[in-house]
Amino acid sequence: MKTVIYILIGLLVATLGGGAYFFLYEYKPVVADYEKMKQGQPEFERTRKELNQLKAKEKQESDWIGPVRDALKKGLANEIAAGRAEVVIAGNRIIVNIAEGVLYTPLSVTFARDGKPSLDNLAALLKELKDKEIFVGNMTKPAPAQGKGRKKVPARDARTLASGRSLELVKYLEKNGVPAEALVAASYPAKVPERGFKIKEQKTIIIITAPASVSPEAAAPTQEAKTAPATQPTATPTTRPTATASAASPASQLKSIPISTVPPKKIQ
Fold first, then answer.
1. Which residues is 34 bridged to in the sheet?
2. Which of 80, 93, 101, 223 has the most CB atoms less than 10 A away?
């Protein structure tokens, strides 16, 4: 009988010990982690909401790329087939490379004599784009001096010639219906690093992208709580004790001494 009692007591102690171990090392840590998770739940929900907003914004900003690329490829099909143009997507941008001979006279900012159909076609394609930024750039080689005497044309470096071409093309596109606020003129040096394009040099480069914008949340200035300035203790003027000032105790009061104006008597 005693053996059974001892066994039951041992089982009870083991059960209590196991329960205490589970409570201290299993249950309490789980509860603590759960409380931490509950405290961080609002932050997690806010972060998830911001992430969903960013995904929606990114999708909205990139939805236009596919249709615009297809329209440009269709409009420039002849130049692309001849190897004189290409339309590619790079990130959230569309890049159009056109060989310089399609639009310009060699070593000049003047448009080619047979380039007007290509210019008109390019303007017709670009003016259909709504709410986009269009960067118009050129890269070419330096132009040496030409002619003699009064008709001599001075030499021009590659960037000067490229910027002149870009400016002339921007003016032409604007004149033919492309919104002025969408056009940006740019220029490139004669050599740029290899980027994997088929047309590598001496070309017109058109980059189409969505205009940069700032979300209302980011644009709103953060209002910092202004703490009230600490009030400076005002110095109260200390009154100087006068001969007639009354003190706290009668013993400390100052008595005025009468002064006689009669000269003292001489003692015989």
1. none
2. 80
pLDDT, one tens digit per residue, over 166-191 is 999 999 999 999 999 999 999 999 99
Whole-number Å distance between alpha carbons of 207 and 134: 6
- pTM for the model stands at 0.63
Spacing of C-alpha 104 from chain mean position: 37
The whole-angstrom separation of Cα 225 and Cα 211 is: 34
Give exposure, 159-185, as e/b (b: 16+ Cβ within 10 Å). Answer: bebbbbbbbbbbebbbeeebeeebbeb
End-to-end CA distance of the chain: 136
DSSP-assigned letter for residue 196: S
**CA 134, CA 185: separation in Å to the nearest integer?**
9
Contact 221, 170 (CB under 8 A): no
**59, 132, 60: which is closest to 94 by C-alpha?**
132
pLDDT digits (tens, 9 = 90+) for 224-251: 545 555 555 455 444 444 444 343 444 4
Alpha carbon distance 111, 204 (integer Å): 12
Q: Starting at the earlier edge strand, list the strands of the sheet with 183-185.
A: 85-90, 93-99, 203-209, 133-139, 183-185
Kindly state the helix (H) or strand (E) to which residue 74 belongs, with its residue range: helix 65-75
What are phi and psi for residue 207, nearest 5 degrees? -115, 125
Q: How far is CA 190 from CA 43, 77, 96, 112, 155, in A?
A: 52, 27, 18, 20, 15
Separation of alpha carbons 27 and 30, rounded Å: 5
Q: Which amino acid is at 89?
A: I
Say if residues 204 and 136 touch (Cβ distance below 8 Å): yes
The phi, psi pair for 98, rounded to 5°, reads -130, 130
